Amino acid sequence: MIISVKTGSRTQMKDITDQVRQAVTSSGIQNGLVHVCSLHTTGAVTINENADPAVPVDILNTINKIVPWDDRYRHMEGNSAAHIKVSLFGPSEMVALENGSLVLGTWQSIFFCEFDGPRNRKVNVTILADR
Ligand code: ZN
Q1: Ligand 1: centre distance to CA 64 (Å)
Q2: Rounded to two decimals, what is the model's pTM?
Q3: Which CATH number fits domain 2-129: 3.10.20.120, 2.60.120.460, 3.90.1570.10, 3.40.190.10?
């Protein structure tokens, strides 16, 4: 199943947990593993805190310092920083599914990480069913 994500700035962490839940619910599968994978080379998927909106801000501020937008990169498209960030974060996450619910901690959410937006993005959700 494909989830559509519209981002609004060059770097952004957008909570997609509800969209993943909807995809899982529509599958009818109750138990297994849910793989959530960005279909882009400049957008990642991560799991982190949803409660304090300052956490994603701090993460983005820090990753933007670690990987500056301009740094004599060779990639002609001019967005090497975004490619590097995706490789640091990774394109996907795996979450357990138990009795129809994602197994996430109280403060955990699944985020799409935009590193070269704003863009319309796609995230693939695959469920490995445990029968
Ligand atoms: Zn590029």
Answers
A1: 17
A2: 0.96
A3: 2.60.120.460
